[in-house]
Amino acid sequence: MPEPKVVTVTNTVKTTVPIVARPKGAQINDVKIYVVTAENYDEFVEKFTNKNGELVYIAISVKDYENLSLNFAELKRYIEQQKQIIVYYEEAVKPEDVISNTSQ
Amino acid sequence: MFNAIKIAMVMTVLATAGMGYLYVKRLQSNLEIAQANVAKMEVAIQVSEASIATLQADAVRNAELTATLQKDLQTAERYGDELRATLQKHNLTALAQRKPGLIENRMQDATNSLWNDLRSITDPNGVQLDDAGTQSSNSN
Q1: In Å, how far is A56's CA from the nearest CA of chain B?
Q2: Cβ contact (<8 Å) for B83 and A73?
Q3: Backbone phi, psi, residue A58, to 5°
Q4: Is pLDDT at B123 greater than 80 in this prediction?
């Protein structure tokens, strides 16, 4: 007499993760830059005082300006790459019906 | 004597018929179990085939997504690389010394452009162009 079979099957079920909203965009304030040399210092003092009311400023060397630029470039790269990785995960967990609709 | 033989024959026929009935019933029961087993195996095969198809489709899709991601990650490196190359190529100190007004405008434009890039890439609804902010002329 045959025994009733117990069948064990591995079924692949795709996890559906809800996509959360992105954070609000960065609020960036504009910054005025002055290039000051010994030759145009008086002109700078006048321009700067007229704009800001008093002659107090934070100076930065050209080398440090370059470093600041490179630091911002690194931050920009990091933000972009993080964003691309988030998009990758969002695409990877997208339900199959959404994938087939977008690919049509 | 003749009656006893008759009774024995009838009993034998009845016993044979009873055993035959039980044999057929057992065969039917075995057949039902076998059919149920076959049905279970068919379902199991279908589920397994569907799982294999899902895994294969996922593997293809993941490979595509990974390739796209690698390309995008590489693209994001371009801006920094170009900026480094530009800064190495030009002596900014000497240029600023010679033409402070011109360099001031260039720096201001580049800085404004960088702020715009940062606003753009952090905009939750924004659509980023493929080449936005990838060149040192686009931003600082």
Answers
A1: 19
A2: yes
A3: -105, 120
A4: yes
Q: From B57, which residue of chain A is nearest by alpha-carbon distance?
A: A96
d(CA A34, CA A58): 11
Q: What distances in angstroms separate CA A104 from CA A100, B36, B69, B93, B122, one per listed residue?
A: 6, 41, 21, 55, 29
- B140/A103: higher pLDDT: A103
Tell me which chain B residues have a C-beta less than 8 angstroms from the C-beta of A9.
43-44, 47-48
pLDDT at B140: 42
Which amino acid does the sequence have at A28? I
State ipTM: 0.81
Q: A92–B48: do the CB atoms touch at under 8 Å? A: no
Instruction: Compute the distance between CA of residue A55 and CA of residue A40 in angstroms, rounded to an integer.
Output: 15
**pLDDT (tens digit per residue) in A62-72:** 999 999 999 99
Give me the pLDDT at residue A104, please: 54
